[in-house]
Write a structure and sequence with these properties.
Dbl Homology Domain, Chain A; PH_domain; seven-stranded antiparallel beta sheet; DH domain-containing protein; PH-domain like; guanyl-nucleotide exchange factor activity
C-alpha cells in the first residue's frame, strides 16, 4: 500500500483498530513531501552529532552501535499517509553508513583505551614490585634482628660476630643490608615518576636506563644463595629452638607462614629482578611504533636484558661450582662433567623401606639420578659413601598419589629397585616430580636418543682358573669307557591317550576384562575426551566422561571402565579460564569458594565440545 500512493485517498488507522478512508488533496501531498525532506535532513544531522559526541564503548561487540530511533512525528506521518517505504529506504542507507564510521572509530578508541589502561596497570605493578622488595629487605634487616634480641640469650648470641665464622643468620642479615642500600638507591630514583599517570611520564624508561646497572650489586648474594639456603635449612634442623622462633617470626611477618619461609623469601630477590625486565617489555607494547615513549622503552628493555644476562651468567658459574662440589663429595667415582650432563637438583630426604627410615641424599642430573648415603649426617658438605645407586632417567617411573597423606611422599620405581622418598613439604616434592618429567621429555627430543628402554647392567661371571694338563690329564679323551652296563626300561600295559587339538590349549581367564559396546556408551554420554586432571601443581593425563545422569567419571585409559575419579556435578558450578596450553575448567560446589576439582583441555576441537556441553548444562559457565 505504501508503494502505490494515490492522491485521492489514503488509509489511516484509528486507536480502535478500524481503518478510515480520507480524501487527500494536491496541497496536502506537496506539504507532506516538503515535511518529509526537512525531517530526513534533521534526523541525519542529529545522528551525526550523536555519533561524534558519543563516548568510547567497552562492550563485547564494538561493531554493534546504538542508533537513535526515528522522530515520532515522522513515524506518525508515514503511517498516516502510507509512504513509509519511500523514506525508510534512504534512512536505512544513511544509518548503515554512519554505523560503519562509528564502529571503526569506536574500535580504534577501544584499542587505545585498553593499551592506556594496560600501561597504567603495568606501571602500578612495577611500583608494587619496588615496594614489595623494599618491605622484604626491611623485615630481614630490621625486624628480624630486633626479634632475635627480644628472645633468650642463646638466640641473641646469634647476632654477635665470631672470629672464625658468623652464624648463618648473621651472614644473611649482613648480605641483605648490602642489597638494601643498593636497592634503596635504585628505588629513590623513581621518585620523579608519577606511576598513576605513567603514559605521560617519559622519565620512567629514562630512570630505568640510567639506574639498571645498580641491580648488578645483587650478584655476590645470588651466587651464594643456594649455599646459604642449604646451611640455613641444616641449622634449623639441628636447632629446634631456633626453628620454632623463626617459624613464629615467619607466621607474623609473611603472609603464608611456613609455606613461604625465610628460605623461600630469599628466592624472591632473583625473581623480582627478572620481573622488572618482563614488566618493562610488556610496557613497551602499549605504545605505537615510532613514538618517543616506544623508543625509550625499547632502550630500557635492552638495558635490563643486558643486566639480567650478566646475572644469569654469574649464577650459572655458581651452578658449575655446585657441580664441582658434588664431584668432590662423590670422590671421583662418578663423571659429573660428562658432555651434556648438567646438575638440576640435590636434596636431603628420608627413604622409607616400611620398617625404618634412613637419611639419603639424592642428586638429579639431566640424564640420571643418584641415591647416596652420607658418611656424616651432621656435616652439610660431607662426602658420600663409595656405594651409591645410579639410575638412568629413561628407566625411572614415578607414581603420584593424590591423597593428602601422600603429599610429601614420592615413589620412584626402576628396573632394579624402588624407593619411597619423604620430602620436607609438598612443594619440594612437586618441584622434583616436574624436574624428572621435564628431563624425560627432553631426552626424547635429543639427537641420537634410542627409544628402547635402557637395560639394566648385566652381571658377568668371574673367570674360572683351569689347571694345567699334566695335573688334570686330557680334558677331552679320544676314547670313552663305560663304567657300567646300561639298563633299558620298557613301558608295557599302557595306552597313550590321544587328545583333540582344540583341547590342548585352555581359554584365558577373563579376570578384570569386561566387554562393552562403544555405541551404547556413546548413547549415555554427553561428552568424552582426553583431559589433564589437576592436583596441586601436577597434572595427570586421563579421559573424562560426562554421563547423562550428571556423573563425571575419569578413567585412566580410553577403553577403561574402572574410574579413578568420580563426581556428581549436578550441584556444581563451572568456571573456565584460558591458558597458554588450552582451557581450564574449574568445578566448585554451589555456595563454596574453593574448587572441588579442575582439569585442562588442550585440543581446540575438545575445547569447543566441552565448552558447548558445559555451557548448556551449567548456565553460570563463563
Amino acid at each position: 500500500m505504501s508503494g502505490n500512493f494515490s492522491k485521492h485517498q489514503s488509509v489511516s488507522h484509528t486507536s480502535s483498530g478500524s481503518s478510515v478512508t480520507l480524501p487527500v488533496t494536491d496541497d496536502a501531498v506537496e506539504m507532506v513531501r516538503e515535511k518529509g525532506d526537512s525531517l530526513s535532513r534533521t534526523h541525519r544531522s542529529s545522528h551525526m552529532s550523536v555519533s561524534s559526541s558519543k563516548a568510547p564503548s567497552f562492550s563485547l561487540s564494538p561493531s554493534v552501535s546504538s542508533v537513535a530511533p526515528p522522530s515520532p512525528s515522522m513515524k506518525e506521518t508515514n503511517e498516516t499517509f502510507g509512504i513509509s517505504g519511500q523514506f525508510n529506504v534512504d534512512e536505512r542507507e544513511e544509518s548503515s553508513y554512519y554505523d560503519d564510521i562509528e564502529s571503526s572509530c569506536t574500535s580504534e578508541m577501544d584499542d587505545s583505551e585498553r593499551k592506556l589502561e594496560k600501561s597504567r596497570r603495568l606501571g602500578q605493578e612495577f611500583e608494587g614490585q619496588l615496594k614489595s622488595l623494599t618491605y622484604l629487605l626491611r623485615i630481614i634487616t630490621e625486624e628480624l634482628p630486633s626479634y632475635l634480641e627480644s628472645q633468650r640469650s642463646k638466640l641473641a648470641k646469634i647476632l654477635v660476630p665470631h672470629k672464625h665464622e658468623d652464624h648463618i643468620l648473621l651472614q644473611i642479615i649482613k648480605k641483605m643490608k648490602m642489597i638494601k642500600g643498593f636497592h634503596t638507591a635504585f628505588t629513590d630514583e623513581f621518585g620523579v615518576v608519577d606511576f598513576s599517570n605513567i603514559q605521560d611520564a617519559p622519565q620512567f624508561p629514562t630512570v630505568v636506563i640510567e639506574n639498571a646497572d645498580v641491580l648488578k650489586s645483587f650478584i655476590p648474594f645470588l651466587k651464594e644463595k643456594r649455599e646459604l639456603v642449604e646451611e640455613l635449612k641444616l641449622s634449623r634442623k639441628n636447632d629446634k629452638e631456633l626453628d620454632a622462633a623463626l617459624s613464629k617470626f615467619e607466621k607474623d611477618h609473611f603472609k603464608q607462614g611456613g609455606h613461604l619461609n625465610l628460605q623461600n623469601q630469599l628466592d624472591r630477590i632473583h625473581q623480582t629482578v627478572m620481573r622488572y625486565g618482563f614488566l618493562m617489555e610488556e610496557f613497551t607494547k602499549c605504545f605505537p611504533d615510532g613514538s618517543n615513549m616506544k623508543e625509550k622503552s625499547k632502550e630500557a628493555v635492552k638495558k635490563l636484558k643486558d643486566v639480567t644476562t650478566i646475572i644469569e651468567g654469574e649464577m650459572i658459574t655458581a651452578t658449575e661450582n655446585e657441580t664441582k662440589k658434588v664431584h668432590e663429595r662423590l670422590q671421583g667415582r662418578f663423571d659429573t662433567f660428562k658432555k651434556a650432563r648438567k646438575l638440576l637438583l640435590q636434596e636431603r630426604v628420608w627413604s622409607d623401606n616400611g620398617m625404618k627410615r634412613h637419611e639419603r641424599y639424592i642428586v638429579l642430573f639431566t640424564d640420571c639420578m643418584l641415591v647416596c648415603r652420607l658418611t656424616n649426617s651432621k656435616d652439610p658438605g660431607c662426602a658420600f659413601e663409595k656405594d651409591f645407586y645410579e639410575f638412568d632417567l629413561n628407566t625411572i617411573e614415578i607414581e603420584i598419589d593424590h591423597y593428602r597423606e601422600y603429599e610429601k611422599t614420592l615413589k620412584v620405581s626402576t628396573t632394579e629397585r624402588g624407593f619411597f622418598f619423604l620430602f620436607k613439604n609438598g612443594k619440594l616434592k612437586n618441584d622434583w616430580v616436574k624436574a624428572i618429567l621435564d628431563s624425560q621429555e627432553k631426552m626424547k627430543n635429543r639427537i641420537g636418543f634410542d627409544l628402547k628402554v635402557v637395560e639394566a647392567k648385566k652381571k658377568f661371571l668371574k673367570p674360572v682358573w683351569v689347571l694345567e694338563s699334566d695335573v688334570t690329564g686330557t680334558l677331552f679323551p679320544e676314547e670313552r669307557k663305560q663304567s657300567r652296563e646300561g639298563k633299558l626300561h620298557v613301558k608295557i600295559g599302557k595306552r597313550e591317550k590321544v587328545m583333540a587339538a582344540e583341547k590342548l590349549f585352555k581359554e584365558p581367564k577373563k579376570r578384570d576384562l569386561k566387554k562393552f559396546d562403544l555405541d551404547e556408551r556413546k548413547k549415555e554420554t554427553k561428552a568424552f575426551g582426553l583431559v589433564y586432571l589437576r592436583s596441586g601443581a601436577m597434572e595427570t593425563e586421563a579421559y573424562a566422561w560426562l554421563k547423562n545422569d550428571d556423573r563425571l567419571v575419569v578413567v585412566k585409559q580410553k577403553l577403561d571402565f574402572k574410574p579413578i575419579f568420580e563426581r556428581n556435578v549436578a550441584n556444581h558450578e563451572v568456571r573456565q579460564s584460558k591458558e597458554r596450553n588450552g582451557v581450564v575448567f574449574a568445578f566448585s560446589k554451589r555456595g563454596m569458594t574453593n574448587d572441588d576439582f579442575t582439569f585442562r583441555v588442550k585440543q581446540p576441537y575438545s575445547i569447543k565440545k566441552w565448552n558447548t556441553v558445559l555451557s548448556d548444562h551449567f548456565p553460570e559457565t563463563n
